[in-house]
Write a structure and sequence with these properties.
The protein is an all-alpha fold. The protein has one helix at about 10-15.
Length: about 15
């Protein structure tokens, strides 16, 4: 898993954010 705030933006993109 990635640290919060380092890859969460890309991760949000998968959700549709």
């Amino acid at each position: 898993t990635r640290s919060h705030g380092h890859g969460y933006r890309e991760w949000l993109g998968t959700l549709g954010g």
